[in-house]
Amino acid sequence: MQITIDVPDDLASRLSPIQDKVPQILELGLREFNASAQAGLIGVAQVLEILAGLPSPEEVLALRPSEEMQGQLDELLAKSKDAGLSPGEELQWQQYEYVEHLVRMAKAQALLKLQAA
Fold it and tell me: Phi-psi category of 63—alpha, beta or left, where left has phi over 0 and alpha has psi -120 to 50?
């Protein structure tokens, strides 16, 4: 399928050398757009972006959830104790647990690097 779009000149000049990658760029952009539009997993993208930036061990050890993310976690935890979680909320909780696992692994590696130094 062929699509024609108008883009600003500066964007066109940046896309010109990588024309063959435009479908992949659009796919990645749509994924990001859809992920940011979802109500769940507040703050997860921020955590993953920080880790993807290869922070120093000290920065990894200092990593904490944002206030917004912590609020979402507290809300889910309270709801799980009171009324129980819906299937969607349970999935959301499991996804937060997985991200927490990744952060703990990163912190363990950071601590090992600091101890070796």
Answer: beta
Measured over the CA atoms of residue 31, residue 32, residue 35 and residue 36, the dihedral's sign is negative
Please check whether residues 30 and 47 belong to one and the same domain.
no
Range(s) of the domain holding residue 14: 1-37
Contact 102, 51 (CB under 8 A): yes
> What residues in the chain have per-residue pLDDT under 70?
32-41
Q: DSSP H helical segments within 1-117, as ranges?
A: 9-15, 22-37, 44-52, 57-61, 67-82, 87-116
**Do 92 and 68 fall into the same domain?**
yes
67 and 95 assigned to the same domain = yes
Q: What is the pLDDT of residue 74?
A: 94
Q: What angle do CA 99, 33, 46 make, to 5 degrees?
A: 35
Task: For 80-108, write each residue's pLDDT tens digit.
Answer: 999 999 888 898 898 889 989 999 999 99
